[in-house]
Every structure is written in C-alpha cells, then in structure tokens.
Design goal:
Keywords: Cell membrane, Membrane, Transmembrane, Transmembrane helix. InterPro entries: PG_synth_SpoVB, Poly_Biosynth_Transport, Polysacc_synth. By secondary structure, this protein is mainly α. It has a domain at 48-259. It has helices at 8-36, 38-45, 49-71, 74-87, 91-119, 130-156, 161-188, 193-231, 241-259, 261-280, 285-326, 330-357, 359-367, 372-401, 405-430, 433-457, 462-497, 503-527, 530-535, 538-546. Helix 3 packs parallel to helix 8 (193-231) and helix 5 (91-119) packs antiparallel against helix 6. The longest helix is centred in the middle third of the chain and has 42 residues, at 285-326. The protein is globular and about 75 Å long.
C-alpha cells in the first residue's frame, strides 16, 4: 500500500514500479512460454522445422497487422481516457467509454476477421501455404479486440494484475493447444506439416477465449468496487454518445500506427527480403526460408522477451502521464518522463547485452545445431537492435500519454522512410543482417526525433539521466564481459569431456552465464546506489537482504 505521506513523485514512482512489475511479470512469463514451446515443437516437426517456423512467421506477421487494425488502438485509448476522467472523479464517464468501446471492438474485430479470411489469397505474398494459416488466425481476431479493450479498462484504474494474469493464461492455453495439436498431427497421424502449422496458429483463438474468461472473472469479482466509484462520481461532466465515439477514435488512430510500428517494419522485411535476396544470390526458396526464419522468426521470438520489458513500461506510463497532464503538473510530467527513461535503461540495456553474450548457447537450446554459427551471430546482432526497438515502444507511448499523438506518428513516418531507403542496399550486401540493420537505423532516427521533441517541450532531469546512463552502460558492459567469458570458459571445459553443442549442455552453460552476469550487475547497481534512483526505498531492502554495504 502506498503511504499517503509520500510526495506525488514518490507515489507516481511506486505506482509505476508496481504496475511495471505486474506487466513485466505477465509479459516475460508469456514471452517465455511463447519461446520455450519451440523446443518440443521443433523436435516434432523434424526436418521441416525451419520451413514450418518460417511459414508460421509469414502468417503471424500479417495477422499481427490485422490484429492491430482490429484492436484499432482502442484499449490504450480507453486506458488513457478512463485515467483522465477518473482523475476528474468522473468514473461514470469512464464506464460509458468502456461500453461504447466494446461496440467498436466487436465491430472492428468482425470486419478485420472477414477481410483476413476472405482476402487471404490476395495477401499471401505468392506462397499458397500461407492461406490456410491466415484462415486459422482470422478466428482469433473476432475475440482479441474485446479482450484487449477490457485490459485497457483495468489499466485505466491502474489495476495491472488482471491484464498480466490474463495475458499469462492466454499464452498458457495457446501453447498447450499448439503442442498438443503438433504432436498429434506430426507424430501420431504423420500428417502434413502445413496443416500442423495451421493448427498451431489456430491456437491464438483458444488462448484468446481463455484470456477473456479470466478477465471476465476479475471483472465480476470487482464489479461492486466499480459501482461504488461510479456512485461517488462528481457527475459534473456529461458527454454525449457521439462525443465519446469521437474521443475514442481520435485517440485510437495514432495508437494503431504506433502500436503497429515494429510490425510494419517486419512486414517490410517479409515482402522485400525474398525479392532482394533472389537478385543478390541464386539460393533456392528453401534456403531463403531458412535465412528468413533465422532473423525474422527465430531471433525475433527471443529478443521480444527483452522488448516485452519495454512494453510493460509503456503500458504503465500512458495512463499515469495522462493523469499528470490533466492535473497541469508540468514538473510531475518532467519527472515521470525521466523516471520512465531511467527505468528503461536500467532493465533494457543489461537485458539486451546479456542476451547478446549468451546468444550461442541460447540459440542452440531453442533451435538446435542447424545453421549454428549464423543463427548465433544473427541473435547477437538482433539483441543489440532490441534496444532501439524497446526505446521506440516506450517513448512513443510517452508521446501518446502526453497527447502528442499526431507528432509521434509523423516522427515514426520519417523513421519508416529511412527504413525503406536503406532496406535494399542493406539486405543486398548484408543478407539476413541487412533488414535488422535498416530497422535499427530507422527506429533510431524516429527515437532521436521523439526525444528531441520531449526535451524541448517537456524537459528531462538531465543530470539524473546522465548519471544513470553512464553507470548503467558501464555495469552492463562488465556484466556482458563476465557472461561472455563464462560461456567461452565453460564451452572449453565441456569440449574436453563431451559435446558442448547439445541442448542440455547448452542450457546449463546459458543458466550459468545468466547467473554470473545477473549477480554482477545487481551487485554493482546496488553497491553504487544507482538502483536507488530507479527503485527508491526498495533498494535498501535488497541491500539488507543481500548484505551489501
């Protein structure tokens, strides 16, 4: 419980840490499940694994774009507007917003699902195997907008636990169905790998049903609390239904574009990579599919675990910034902006560098020894590109929380143009590394434009951020070196007694390196007191627990 004697800044930081903790836990557990399933899934697909994974990625990228269009940015818009009206003690308006949003969510979900299902032959990219995958994914789009909207409603009340837990339940149900269907079709029935992939993508519908039921249980358990808040509302503001729809749509459209930012970049890769590589090489389609799978699916699945840390921060930041802006507290806005960036650096930089350090054994754990060296190198490079990816997710959300939606879209458009311009030369000369490099540069340009604008119009606590960046970067590099040396050293030892490239041995090496690197980073952050700037009084408890002076 937050102490009423705390300053507004301390309360905001505690709310952000609490909310981020829930969202981070939910995101990481979900992403972890979404990555770990690939081990048995890949084994059951056997020699067809890389092609199956590439097909899965080709379908999922298109589905992700349609899903974002179906969701239409409504959940984040609802979270922002509900937080805005709650700050004015107008809880009744927030409830009406949610109900109007439900109508929009059902409508957009239905329209997008129909377009995806019947339009699949037109957007398959020339690969007919993608069509049944898109058909199976269309069913999920019917349900997920409603589920996401309900999560946004809870987030508007700063209640992050329902979102996090439903996210985990959704992923658990999805992965369970994926593995069960893949095992039955590939190992029991010895069926087509294309049909097995279609069932694996249909799992998104199964997961969505489970997630929605979880949210429904939470809502009915807390509906009396919501009713009491509505009953105690000021009721000084009356908003017509037409105006509510206008508010939702006006807020939602920029959320669509910015929420789809990384997906748009992935779609650019999907529809250009094969064409460019056919010009640059004489590789057959199977080889190109393997190369595409390595950077667009395999490594992406792992780096999105670290990017999910940024997503958790972003989801927490939007309603809080909206409240501060509604209250006209510019100093609080500046401090919250700084806290968001500092917390991002504290978790994202070491997470990205840590994954880069363990890329070799980690890649073998999930994807075996096929294309071992290239896959590890791509994962290393992808881990670094995850930093500008995560930063874009966070600061674009900050812009939305500060009602700078159109300007954020403009900056993203500039970054997209840069991506387009660099896509051909980067891919032609660098192969699988090229799309990653063009993505990194494009997002870096967009990030620079957004940060420059935030600095000019809202400001940052520059001294705090400068100290945080220098120390976090230094400690992260030390952690990276320690983890990398652990990997190299253990590989040398294992080579003397057995196979260093087996999955079990690679997992042990990975865990050892993570433990060594994590302990070093945590010790340095607590010892230097840099953790205090991010975590506040919680750092003292950690120091006492770990006996760090």
């Amino acid at each position: 419980m937050i102490d009423n004697r705390q300053s507004p800044t301390e309360k905001s930081r505690d709310q952000m840490l609490s909310g981020s903790a829930w969202m981070t836990a939910g995101s990481i557990l979900s992403r972890f499940l979404g990555a770990v399933y690939i081990i048995p899934w890949g084994i059951w697909f056997g020699n067809d694994f890389f092609q199956a994974n590439a097909l899965y990625g080709l379908g999922y990228n298109i589905y992700s774009f349609f899903l974002i269009a179906a969701i239409a940015g409504i959940p984040s818009a609802i979270a922002k507007q509900v937080a805005h009206y709650n700050a004015l003690n107008e809880y009744g308006v927030g409830v009406r917003l949610y109900k109007r949003g439900l109508v929009l969510a059902v409508f957009t979900g239905l329209i997008c699902a129909v377009i995806l299902y019947f339009g699949a032959p037109l957007i398959d990219g020339g690969d007919p195997n993608v069509i049944p995958v898109l058909h199976s994914l269309a069913w999920a789009i019917l349900i997920i907008p409603t589920m996401s909207l309900t999560r946004g409603y809870f987030q508007g009340y700063q209640q992050m636990a329902p979102s996090a837990i439903s996210q985990f339940v959704e992923q658990l149900a999805r992965v369970a169905y994926m593995l069960l269907s893949a095992f039955i079709m590939m190992r029991v029935l010895h069926g087509s790998w294309i049909s097995a992939v279609s069932q694996s993508t249909f799992a998104a519908f199964i997961g969505a049903v489970a997630g929605l039921l979880t949210l429904g249980a939470y809502y009915f358990r807390r509906r009396e609390d919501f009713r009491q808040l509505v009953a105690s509302s000021s009721n000084d503001i009356h908003v017509e239904a037409k105006q509510l729809y206008q508010e939702i749509i006006a807020q939602a459209v920029p959320f669509i574009i910015l929420g789809a930012g990384i997906t748009i970049f992935m779609l650019i890769d999907q529809f250009t990579f094969f064409k460019i590589m056919r010009m640059a090489t004489n590789y057959n389609y199977a080889t190109l599919s393997d190369l595409y799978a390595m950077f667009a699916v395999n490594s992406n699945k792992l780096i999105m675990i670290t990017v999910s840390l940024a997503s958790a921060l972003a989801i927490t930041a939007v309603p809080m910034l909206s409240e501060a802006l509604t209250g006209g507290d510019n100093s609080e806005v500046r401090k919250q902006n700084s806290n968001v960036l500092a917390l991002f650096m504290f978790v994202m930089i070491p997470a990205a560098l840590g994954m880069a350090a363990i890329a070799g054994p980690l890649n073998r754990v999930f994807y075996g020894t096929s294309h071992q060296a290239l896959g590890a190198n791509i994962l290393t490079f992808s881990s670094i590109i995850a930093i500008p990816m995560g930063l874009f997710v966070v600061i674009s959300a900050v812009m939305q929380g500060l009602s700078q939606n159109k300007r954020a879209v403009k900056f993203f458009a500039v970054g997209t143009v840069v991506k387009f311009v660099l896509q051909w030369p980067c891919t032609y000369f660098l192969g699988s590394f090229g799309p990653l490099l063009s993505t990194g540069i494009g997002l870096t340009v967009a990030n620079w434009l957004i940060l420059r604008y935030l600095n000019r119009h809202f400001g940052f606590e520059k001294r705090m951020l400068d100290i945080a960046f220098r120390k976090i970067s230094k400690y992260s590099l030390l952690m990276y070196l320690a983890a990398l040396l652990t990997v190299v050293g253990l590989n040398q030892i294992v080579q003397l007694v057995g196979n260093p490239f087996g999955r079990v041995v690679s997992l042990m090496v990975t865990l050892a390196a993570v433990l060594v690197g994590g302990v070093i980073y945590l010790y340095l952050a607590l010892k230097s007191r840099i953790a205090d700037m991010i975590l506040g009084p919680r750092s003292d408890k950690l120091r006492q627990l770990l006996r760090i002076a």
